Amino acid sequence: MISYNCVLFRIITFMQYSKQDRSVLEEKFEWDLIVIGGGATGLGTALDSAARGFKTLLVEQSDFAKGTSSRSTKLIHGGVRYLAQGDISLVYQALKERGRLQINAAHLVSKEEFIIPCYDWFSVIKYLTGLKIYDWLAGKYSFGKSRFLSRAEVQEKIPGLVDKSLTGAISYFDGKFDDSRLAVNIAQTCIENGGNVLNYVQVIKLLKNVEGKVNGVEVIDLLTNTSHLVYAKVVINATGVFVDDILKMNTPGAEKMVRPSQGVHLVIDSNFLGSNSALMIPKTSDNRVLFAVPWHSKLLVGTTDTPIQEHSLEPRALEEEVNFILDTASKYFKRKIDKKDVLSVFAGLRPLAAPSKNDSNATKEISRDHKLLVEKSGLITITGGKWTTYRKMSEETVDTAIQTSKLEDRKCVTKDLKIHASTSLQLSGHLAIYGTDMDEIIKLTYEIPNGADQIHPFYPNINAEVIWAVRNEMAYTVEDVLARRMRMLFIDAKAAIEMCPMVAQLMAQEMQKSPIWIEQQILEFTQIASEYLLESFHKKEEVIII
Questions:
Q1: How far apart (Å, rounded) are the C-alpha atoms in residues 413 and 104?
Q2: Residue 436 belongs to a domain with what CATH number?
Q3: Does residue 406 share a domain with residue 451?
Q4: What angle do CA 171, 175, 176 make, to 5 degrees?
Q5: From CA 307, how far away is CA 321, in angstroms rounded?
Q6: Looking only at Cα atoms, what is the longest distance across the chain?
C-alpha cells in the first residue's frame, strides 16, 4: 500500500458527483443558452448561466481546456505589468477576482511569494512603490504585504539565484493554480447546478430562423459519430483562438477578431533555484515578464510572446522561443540550464483581441484584455481575457445575453459560488489537488484491484486516479488523463509516455474497450507527447502559416 502524506478526512454530507448526459443532444426542446467552447471563459459562462437557473448546454470540440486554458503560466494575478502601464481599473478588478477565486476554489488556488531581484537602488524604489500600490488596490482581498529583502535574505530564500551585483529584492504575493484541474472542476460545478457540458462535440454549422437570427447549432458527437440539431434562444461563441471560425459560419469573410500570440513554457527540476518562492524578472529583452514558478514539485519557466498566423489545438514550441527562455534564465540562474534538463516544453496560444477596423456600438470594449461582440444575427462572441478574470467575463457575457434576447432578467450568483471540491482544509500530498474528492479516491484504492499501485516509480500517481477520471471527470482518452487530469504530460513528458500503456489498459478495462483501442491510444498519445520533448522542435520557418 502506498503511503499517503495527506490528511484523511470525511465529508458527512451527500455529494452528487458529476455525470454527463450525452442523450440531451437528441432532445427536441429549446435551450436558453448554448455555449460553444470548453475553455475557461466558456465553462465560466455555462456555470454562470446554469447557476442563474437557465437551461444551459456547453459543447467543446475536444477535451475541456485542451487549448489555451491548460497552457497558462499557472498564475492567478492582478497583473503587475498592467499597473506599470497605468491600467489601474483592470488591475483593481483582477485583484478582486483573484481573491474571490482563492476563496471559491481553495483546493487549487494558493498564495505564492514572488521575488523581484534588484541590482540597483532605483529598481528597489520603483518596484517597492508600485507593489505597495498593488497591495493597496487588493484591499480586503490582499494575499500579503510586499516588502524589501536584503541581499542576505534573497540568498537564503533563493540560493540558486545569481547574486553578483545584487542589491536586494522586492517580495510580493500573488496566486498560482492548476489551470486544467480548475476547468474540470468548473465543468462539474456547472453540472451540479443543472447545466450540461459535453466534450468531444463539434459545432459544424450555425442554425438560423427565417429572420436570420441564430437559433441553434448543428453538431457532431465525435464519440458516437452522430449529428444533431440543437436549438437555443441564445448562442455564445467562447472558443478562444477559434472564435473566428465560428464568426465565419455566421458571416463568411468576417473580419478577424483574434490575433493569436504564442507563449512557451519550459519545465525543469525545482533544484535549479532550490526555493519555494517564485522568481519574477520584470523586463526581458523582448519587454515581457519572465516567471519561474514552483509547480507540482517542478519549476515552470516562461513565457514568450510570438505573434503567429495559425491556430491549432496542439501548437508547437519554436526553437528560438526555447533558446530565448534558456538564455534569459541563464542570466539569473547560477546553474546553467541545458536542453537535456528540460522535462517538458509546451506552447499555448493567447486569444488576444484584435483591434477592429470599424468598431461600432455593437462592440463593447470591456477592457484592453477582452472583448464582447454582438452580431446582427444575435450571436454573442467573447474573446481575450485571462484565467484570473474568467468569472467576471462570464458574468458580463450572460448579462449581455439577457439584454439582447428574451431571457428573464436574473442576477449573477457566482461571486460566492464554491467550485466543486473546494475545501478550506489544509490538505497535503499529491492528491490534495482533488480537494474534497481526495477521500473518495482513497476509498477507491480499496475497491478496485491494485488501486493504490503507483503508475510510475518516480511519481506518486496511482491507478485509482485513472479510474476516478473516467468515472467522475469526463475523461475519454489517455491524453485527457495524462495531460489535463494528472498533468503528467506538462510535468515530465518522457515519464508520461512511459505511463501511457498502463493508463490505456486501465481505461480500456473501465470503459470496456478493445485491445485495438489500447494500441491506438498508445500511438496517438506518444505522437502528441513527443512534441513536448526538445528533440522534436520545429524552427519558425517550418511552421505552416494559414
A1: 12
A2: 1.10.8.870
A3: no
A4: 115
A5: 12
A6: 73
Cβ contact 497:483 at 8 Å: no
Please state, in angstroms and rounded to a whole number, the distance separating the CA atoms of residues 72 and 167.
Answer: 31
Residue linked to cell 500511438 = 523
8 Å CB contact between 382 and 414: no
Residue 388: exposure state from Cβ atoms within 10 A (0-12, 13-18, ≥19): buried
pLDDT in tens, 57-113: 999 999 999 999 999 999 999 988 888 777 888 899 999 999 999 999 999 999 999
Interatomic CA distance for residues 149 and 497, integer angstroms: 42
In a domain, 13, yes or no: no
Domain that holds residue 448: 430-535
The helix (H) or strand (E) run that includes residue 98 is: helix 88-104
Please give the average per-residue pLDDT across 216-224, as a whole number: 98
Parallel/antiparallel/unpaired status of strands 147-150 and 226-237 = unpaired
- Which pLDDT score is estimated for 111? 96
Tell me, what's the pLDDT at 355? Answer: 61
Q: Specify the long-range contacts of residues 531-535, CB closer than 8 Å, at least 24 apart.
A: 531/314, 531/316, 532/344, 532/345, 532/346, 532/489, 532/490, 532/493, 532/496, 533/344, 533/345, 533/493, 533/494, 534/322, 534/339, 534/340, 534/342, 534/345
> Whole-prediction pTM value?
0.93
pLDDT tens digits, one per residue of 237-296: 999 999 999 999 999 988 888 888 899 999 999 999 999 999 999 888 777 789 999 999
Nearest CA to 47 among 189, 253, 206?
189
Structural domain includes residue 99: no
CA atoms within 13 A on the CB side of 302: 27
**What is the reported pLDDT for 237?**
98
Same domain, 476 and 437: yes
Q: Is the pLDDT of residue 7 over 80?
A: no
Nearest to 30 by CA among 407, 423, 295, 409: 407
Q: Which residues contact 443 (CB under 8 A, 6 or more apart)?
A: none
How many residues are recorded in the chain? 546
Report CA torsion sign: 214, 218, 221, 224.
positive
Cβ(451)–Cβ(1) below 8 Å: no
Instruction: Give the burial class of 309: count Cβ atoms within 10 A of its Cβ; 0-12 exposed, 13-18 middle, 19 or more buried.
Output: exposed
Cα-flanking dihedrals φ and ψ of residue 279, to 5°? -105, 135
* Angle between helix 390-403 and 40-51 (nearest 10): 60
Residue pLDDT, tens place only, 326-375: 999 999 999 999 999 999 999 999 888 766 554 443 333 334 578 999 99
User: pLDDT tens digits for 159-190?
Assistant: 999 999 999 999 999 999 999 999 999 999 99
Same structural domain, 211 and 312: no
pLDDT score, position 356: 57
